[in-house]
Amino acid sequence: MKSFARLAYPYMFWISIFIVLPMLMIVFYAFSTQGNDVLTLQFTLDNFKRFFSDPIFPMVLYRSLKIAFMTTIICLAIGYPCAYLIAQMKEKDQTMMILLITLPMWINMLVRTYAWRGILMSTDLSSEIKVLIGMVYNFLPFMIIQIYTSLAKMDKSLLFAAHDLGANKIKTFLRITLPLSIPGVIAGITLVFLPAVSSFFIPILLGGGEYVLIGNLIENYFVASGDWNFGSAISLIMAVLIMASMFLTKKLDYGNKEG
Amino acid sequence: MMLNIKNYFKELNLKHKLFSKSYIIGTLLFFYLPIVYVVMFSFNESKSLTKFTGFSLKWYDKMLNDSTMLDAIYYTVVIAVIATIVSTIVGTIAAIGLSKSKKIVKELVLQVNNLPMMNPEIVTAIGLMLFFTSFSIKTGFMTLLLSHIAFCIPYVMLSVMPRLRQLDPNLAEAALDLGATPWQALTKVIVPLITPGIIAGALIAFTMSFDDFVISFFTTGPGVTNISIYVYTMYKRINPSINALSTLIIVVITIVLILVNAIPILKEKGRKKNVQIY
Amino acid sequence: MKKFIQIKNIVKDFDGQIVLKGINLDIYENEFVTLLGPSGCGKTTLLRILAGFLQQSDGQIFLDGKDLTGVEAYKRDINTVFQKYALFPHMNVYENIAFGLKIKKISKDVIEQKVNRMLSLVNLDGYAKRNVTMLSGGQQQRVAIARALVNEPEVLLLDEPLGALDSKLRKEMQLELKKIQQEVGITFIFVTHDQEEALTMSDKIVVMKDGEIQQIGSPTDIYNEPENEFVARFIGESNIIDGLMVEDYKVMFDDKVYDSVDYGFKPNENVDIVIRPEDIDIKEPNTGVLNGIVKSVLFKGVHYEIVVETVSGTSKTVKMHILKNHDRYNESAKQKISANDFTMDLEDVANITDAEIIARANAQAWDDKDEYVSLTKIEYDILNQSGKYAVTFKTSENTSITVTISVVEPKYVEDDKQGVGITAFDFYKTADEIKESMMLSTDLKMWANASAWDLEDDSNIEIHDVVYDFDAENISEGEFDITFATKGRVFKIHTTDAKLENQKVSLDFSAEDIHIMSKFGSY
Prior knowledge:
heterotrimer, B: mainly alpha, MetI-like fold, 11 helices, 81% helix, C: Rossmann fold, 3 domains, 40% strand
C-alpha cells in the first residue's frame, strides 16, 4: 500500500507552501521592522514593546476578549436550553429543527449582519450592545449544534437507568445529562469564542467604526497604514493568546474526562 | 386532594410545554428576523432602511445595472466553482494518501492541516497576503483562487477522512489481488465507497468559498471583489440594492436546499413504489 | 511432483522489529499447506509477502521457477481470500465475482459463464443479484472464495477465512474447502491458529512461532512426532513429562526405565516425553505398566477424558478439632462475640498483624439484630518462641473473648524426589462453622494455613487435593484428619470407557507411544 501513501506527497508540499510558510511569514514580519527584506533581516522586539507601551493596544485587546467572553456566555445561556429542548423532541422534529437553525447559516454572514444594521439603526442602543447582538446572532447556531450533537448521541438508557435508580428530573440532569454534554459545550465554546475574538466586520458594520476590536486594529495596520510588521505582531499576540486559551479549554475537557 | 395534586401537575406540565415551545419559537424568530427584514426592504420604494413606504422593484433594477455588483457575483460564483472542484480533488487524493501513510506522517500532516481551522481566519488571511506580496506575486484573481483552494482543502479532508477510516483496509488489497492496478483500485473500489464523504466535502467547500470574506478581503487584488467584499465596502452608504441581492441569494439557496432535501425523499418514495409493484 | 513455490530465507522486519527470521519452505503443486501458529508468529506476514502486499526485507520467493521479488500484487497469479472477506460493498454478488475478469477485459458472455460456474461450485446458484452486505457470514465466505478462484490462480491464499464463522458452519466449510481444493486442483496456502482445522484439512502443516518454523510435516507427523514441546502443546492436549534419556531406546521418568523407539540423544540427556492421551489404555490394576487412581472423569462428547494419578503428590495431614459453640454474650451491650484457638508457625510470629490474627482466629462480634460489630481492640503478647499465648478481642462496648494461640516449630513435609515442600497446622472450629462453609476445601486450606512450595525456587505450588472423611452436614465435636496434597504425576487419557473416580486402575502404553523430544529449542 506504499503506492497509495505516495498520493499524500503533493499535498505535503502544498501545505508547506500554503499553511506553514504563511505562518512563518507572520512570525518573520512580527520580529523585524519596516523596510527589511530576507537579506537584511534584523531581529527586533520593537513591535511588541510598542504594543504594550501604549495603553490603547492592551485596552483594545482587553475589549476584544471581553466581548468574545460575553458573546460566549450569552450563546451558552441561550443555546444550552435550546439544544436541550430540541434533543427532547421526537426524532423527526429534531431533524426539522436542526435544519431550520442551520438554514440561515447558508446565507452569507455579511449579508445577514448587514440586515441587522438596518434593524438596529433606528434603536439607540450603544455600539457595544449592537456588536454583541451581531456576534450572538452569527455564532449562536454553532453553540446549539455542538451541544445538541452531544446530547443527541447520549445513550437514552442512561436516563432511564437514572430514573430507575430513583433520581428525579433535576438530579438526572445534573448528574448524567450535564456531565455527558460537557464535550459538546467545550466544542461550542471554542467555535464561538475563536471567531468572536478576531471578528472585524461585525464591529465595522454594526458599531459604525466607533467600536474598535483587535481584528480592526490588524486590518487597519495592514490595509490603511501599511505597517505590516506591527500588524503581524498584533496577529501573533492574538494567535498565541487564542492557542493558549484553546489549550487550556482542551485540558479542562481532558481533566473532566479523567475525573 | 388527590385530584388537586394531579391537576397541579397537569398544569405544571402544560406550563412547561408552553414555555418550551415559546422558547424555541423565540430563538427561531431571532434567527429569521434579519432574513424577513432583508426580503421586505428589498421591495421598499424609498431608500430608507427603517420605514417601508411602498412596494417597488427598483432596487432589483438598480442591482442588474450595477456592474460592480454583477462582477462581484460573477467572481464569487466562478471562484467558488473552481475552488470546490480543485479542493475536492486535491483533498480526496491527499486523504486517501494519508490514510495509507505511516502514523507519524499522518498525524503531523493532520496537525498542520488543522492550523487554519484552529487559528482565527484573519491570521490565515494575513499570512497568505504576506506570502503573496513577499514573493512578488501580483494579487488578484489567481491569488484569491489559490487562497480559497488552500482554506477549502482541510474541510474536504475533514469530511473524507472518517469515510476512509470506516473502510475495510483489505478492500484496496483485494482489488490489487484480483488484478486491478493501483489506479483501478482507486477508481473502481475506493472512490465509489467514499463518494458520500466527497460530496459532503464539496458542499462544505462550496459554501465556505461562497461565503468567505476575511481571507478574500486580504488576498484579492484591485478589480476583483466578491459579494462579501462588496457588502463590506458599501457599509458607509445606504444601498438597498444589497437587500435585493441578498433576497436573490436567499431565494436561490432556499430552492437548492429544498431540492437537496427533497430528492432523497422522492427517491425513497420511488423505491417503495417499485417494491410494491415487484 | 515438482517444487512449485520455493521460499528461500525470507526475512521481514518492521522498523527494526524482526517478524520473520529466515523462512525456508518448499510447496508442491496441488498441495493444501497450512501455516499454523499462535497470533504474532508471523504466519500472516508470510502470506502477505506471498500475495505481494508486503516486500520481504531479505530472501526470495520463486513461483514455478520465476523470482517474485518486485512483482506487484496485481501481476501475480496468486489470489487471496481475506479474513473478513473484503467483499466490495457497493457491488452485488455477481459484480464481486466478475471484478477480476472485468479488469482483464474478458468478453461479457465468457464472464457470465465463468461466474455462473463459480456460483455453483460454491453452492450459491441464484444469489448473483444479491447485495453482499445482506449475506450471512458463510455466504460471504463463499463469495470471497468464488471471487478469488474465478481468476484461475495458480495459488490460493486463505488468511484465517473461517475465523468469523460459528463452530458448526466452520466444520462444514472445512470439508467444503477441502472438496473445492481437490476439484480445482491448485495449491492452497491456508493460515490459521486452530490446530484442529489444520489437522483436518492439510496435506502439509507448517508450525510457526516467533517468526520461525518449528516443524514442517504431514498432520500425522506433526501430531505423533512433534519435534519440541511447543509443537506438542500447540497441536493438542498431551501428557508432557520431564524425563531422562538413559541411553538409546531407554528413557526414565518417575524412577522407572521404559523402552522407547527413540535414539540419538546424549547419555543422561534431559528430555521431554510426550504420551498422547489416546495412546494410553486403561486396564485392571497390575496388568499395565503403571498403576494409579482415577482422579476425575469428564465426558467430552465423543470420549471421556480421564485423569489418573500414578504417583501421589506430597501431602501433610493435620487435625481439625471441632469444639462446642463458644459464643460469649454480653448482656448489657446485647452483643455476642466468638473466636477460635489456633496454631501458628514460629517463623510467622515476627510478621504477624492484627488483621491476620482476627482472620486466623475467625474472631467476630455481632449484636442482637445480627449486624456485625467491629472489633476495636486486640490484646496479645506473643514471644518469638514456641508456647501457648492468650489473645483477647474486644468491641468498643467491652464485649470480649480470649483464645489461645499455640506457636509451634514449623513442621514441613519435604519430598526431595518431587522437589516439593508442604506445611499445614492443626486448627479449632465449631460444628456450625463447618456447616456454614460455602467452599469447604478452600476454607479448610485457609484455616489450616496450608501451603506448598517448590524446594528449588520457593515458588508457590497449588494444593490440589484436600482429603477428609467427615460428613460436613452432620459434623459434631471431635477430632478429624485432613490431608492436604499437591498434584502428583497425572496422566490424561482419552477413552470411550467410563471409569469411576477413585477407582484403582493400571495404565498401559507401548514403546512406540512414547515420543521423546529434545529440550533444546523448546521454551
